[in-house]
Structures are given as structure tokens and as C-alpha cells.
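seq as requested:
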Amino acid sequence: MVSRREALELCEKIEGLYRQHEEWRGTKCINLIPSENVMSSNARALLSSDFAHRYTSRENYYRGTRFMDEVEQLATELAKKVFRAKFTDIRPLSGHLCDLAMCLLYAKRGDKVLSVSPRDGGYPGLSESGVGGILGLKNRYFPFVKRRMNIDAEKAIEYVERERPVLTFFGASFFLFPHPVRKISRTLDTVTVYDGSHVLGLLSGGAFQSPLEEGCDVLIGSTHKSFFGPQGGIIVTNDDRIAETLENRLHPGIVDNIHWNRVLALAVALVEMLRFGKEYATQVVRNSKALATGLSDLNVNVCCRDVGFTESHQVLLRYPRTTSIRFAENLEKAGLIVDAGGRLGTSEMTRRGMKETEMQTVAQLIAEAMKNPENVQERVEKLAKEFVGAKYCL
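C-alpha cells:
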């Protein structure tokens, strides 16, 4: 037990760290992490609502849920409109839980599951070190062409016919170009899932590809990367049998309490995406191309130059992992926030209002910061302060 004074001091420390983070990440940094974004003030405010304390259930076990039930229905209908689909489920708490759900529902121990290898930029959470290993699945991986950062469609068709996976995942963590879903899915006698966690905001804005129309049974994803909602997950399908399975089996084994403050904020983000999705997603891709071109022109080693660098929110730099870690550390000293995988993302700075001209400036700052981060810190902070808050919102 701590004294009142000690408790107050601890709370002051916690609040102080919060304020420091808000100022640093919100006004002094340029965030280029592709798995992050920023919510509108309207959406963000709802995360601290009374909904954060509450439970509900579809079996009416809990009472006092009339408004929460209405919010769930509204958010579900909005998601159907955004993704142009018959069925959506907003209960999963993350994109990873969506992956887990599909594996639990459609594969059993010893079954083959096909995806992009982590060595080729695929999601490690599906691999032997993640869900695959935990559930005793046999992970199989698409033939891949690294110089194009994409699945080799012709070899994949032959591989699928030979291996016969029961579950196939398109999508990746390093995701520059649309996957050849239409070409491959015609040959698959399997449940096909498109993990759009990284590109969900581009899909909803019609700026990348249309997985369900191209042959996938299910679209899953995270709602906080290129999609600018709260952290969470979503499942989308037009298949009635899959929809029925999800409706009946997600709860209580995979998802229980779905964090209703998250659903409130997601509903607002879905409205914003309905209103501004196409404009936002198109600008994200334009910004990625501008950033990649600017970096390449400054002799930074950008992947996939011969195929146009990127069609997504990501730009990939080609460096050994040890070099990428030093690269990320140096950029952080300058106020340029990136991950250690060599990926740069344009989603958040697009949401904050940057366009192609600013991306050219960011490219210049990155190139200089790679050598002398201290020399550009002041310029980074000055630019960041011009783009505070969120655009593409009401």
C-alpha cells in the first residue's frame, strides 16, 4: 500500500509522461510508421466515454445496453457501406485476432495454410512462430518475386495445385502492390482470406484493389493503419455460409467484450471514410509515390524502382536489417519516426494534411538525417507544427 502523497506523485508522473508524449508525437515529429495513423478529434474523444466501462451480449445477459446495441448496429451498417459488402463483423479487437479466428474456424491441426512468407514481407503472426505454430498448422508460402515485392502468380498456381492448402491468406506486412488475387483465386479449392490490415484504408477508398470482387471469400483487417480509426479489427464477407459461421462462433470463444468505446470511435471513422475515403486514399498513394521518387532522386536505395516503387501507403528501403535499425535510430533523433524494417508509411502525414510538395521536403530531410540527424531536427519540428490535427474529417 502506498501513501496518499506517493499515489499523487505516481499519478503526476503518469500524467506528465502522457503530456510529454502528446507534445512530442503530436507536434514535433513526422510519423512515417506504416502501421499507425491519427484519428479525428471527434473519434478520439469517444474513447474516454462511459462506453469504455460497459459490457453487453447478444444473449441479453447484461441489461442497460439499449444504446450500445444501437451503436453496434449502426457501425455494422456503416461498415457494409464502406466496404460494399453484405456482412461485416466489427467485434474482433485486432487484425491479428481476425487471422486467429479464420485459422481456428477453418483449419485444424496438421492442415496446410498458405500465405506470404515473413522472409518476403509476410505477416509473422501467421507463421510457425505465430498462429501456425501454436495451432499445429503446416505453414506453406507463396512463390515470391522480391524485386517486384509480389507473389509469382504462375508458380503460385502450380504450387497450390500440388500442396492443396485448406486456407489461403493474401496480404502482407510489407505491402507495396496489389496481389494477383483474381488470377490465383480461380484455381483455389480453399477458403481464401485477404488480410488487408495494412491497406484497409486504401481498399475502403477504392485506391488499391477489390479483394471480394476479385475472388476472395473474406476480407479481414486492422482499423488503425491506413484506415484511420481506433485500434481494432474487422471481418467482411459476401459469403452467407461464412457469415453464419462468424455470427455464431466468434463469441464467446474468440471474442467476448468488444470494447464499446472503440466501436463508438470506429463508427465516426467509418462516417469519415464514407465522406472522404476516396480523396484520402488517392492522396495517400500519391504521397507514397512522391516520397519514393524524391528519396530515389537523392540516391537513397528505394525498392522496386523499375515497377514504380509502390501503389500503397508504403515505401520500402532496401538495407540490411542492422543498417535499417541504425537508420531508424538516426531518424528518431531528427524527429522522423520510422520502424526498423526499412518501411516508410504516408498514411498519418496524409491525414494531417501533407501532399506531394511536403513529401519532397520529407525526402530531403530523411536523406540529410541519415548522415547528420542533428542538422535537420529544427526543420523537422517546424514542418511538423504546420500539420497538427487531422484532415478528411467533419
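The chain has 15 helices and 13 strands.
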